[in-house]
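Field reference: sequence -> structure
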Amino acid sequence: MSLSIGDRAPDFDVVASNGRRLSSTELYGKKTVVIYFYPGDFTPVCTKETCGFQDMYDDLVGKETEVIGVSLDSDESHRKFAKRYDVAFPLVSDEGRALSTKFGAFDGMMGVLRGLMNKVRRVTYVIDRSGKIAGIFTGELVASNHTDGVRDLIAKLSA
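Structure field:
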């Protein structure tokens, strides 16, 4: 499934590794949502990306924005990752691949290979308060494409 800017974002109802329930029905219409898919905990680019979102998290919360990180790693891995890097926002284990599939994190030429390696592609969505996709950021090896793009777009949406 390929998503585009302006599309209605997929619905979801998941439990993060910290035990927090996250539901699109609770978030859409109330907050801007940043949901980013990343290949794996403790890898160099994923760590840089996650720490980048953590560095700006207080500012994003102040702009009524929720950040959600998603990978296929286990809840246990997420808890260790969050503890090591002081990640305050929820990390979701998508071991069943349902959320990643809804958001197209397996799409593209490398989708089959990613699935075999049990990894998702690096893609970030910004979902506005109406539940529509306001921004999509990609780039497998450059975390700043995602963090800088989100920061700039949230500033525009908040203005």
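Note: The longest strand covers residues 65-71.
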